[in-house]
Write a structure and sequence with these properties.
- With 127 residues, the chain is an alpha/beta fold.
- It is 39% helix and 22% strand.
- Strands 3-2-1-4-5 form a five-stranded parallel beta sheet, sandwiched between helices.
- Strand 1 (2-5), helix 1 and strand 2 (25-31) form a beta-alpha-beta unit.
Length: 127
């Protein structure tokens, strides 16, 4: 499956635009235990499930809330590619570059000693 990391809810629209390329997608909401959220990860997951239902792409996207290293979960799920939906490089770029380093070197340095899963970034609609 293709693997989507949902930083922002507009990522459903990104999947819709690319669904002809992929069958199944896993929409992942990462949980950082040190961060306080205005909207809990579980609430975000429910919002995404409702959006998936409204877009009529049920059965194509599975929504998961994941703590720990996202790349480990992606490898366990045999993801072929990581898509990260971002608002813009200006708003999310610095944080995304750090996460890219973690996702690239984590599998090599922390195990299970595998080549990293390729990551692509897709900007959402500006509105």
């Amino acid at each position: 499956p293709v693997f989507l990391f949902f930083k922002h809810l507009h990522s459903v629209h990104i999947y819709r635009a690319h669904k002809h390329r992929y069958g199944e997608a896993i929409a992942v909401i990462g949980v950082n235990a040190t961060k306080k959220y205005d909207v809990t990860p579980e609430q975000r997951a429910e919002l995404i499930r409702k959006m998936v239902s409204a877009e009529k792409i049920q059965g194509k996207i599975r929504v998961e809330v994941v703590s720990g290293y996202i790349w480990r979960f992606a490898m366990k799920e045999k993801a072929s590619i990581l898509y990260r939906g971002i608002r813009s490089w200006g708003k999310d770029g610095a944080e995304e570059r750090l996460l890219y380093i973690l996702n690239s070197y984590g599998p090599i340095l922390l195990g299970p000693l595998r080549w990293p899963i390729p990551t692509c970034y897709l900007e959402g609609k500006p509105e």
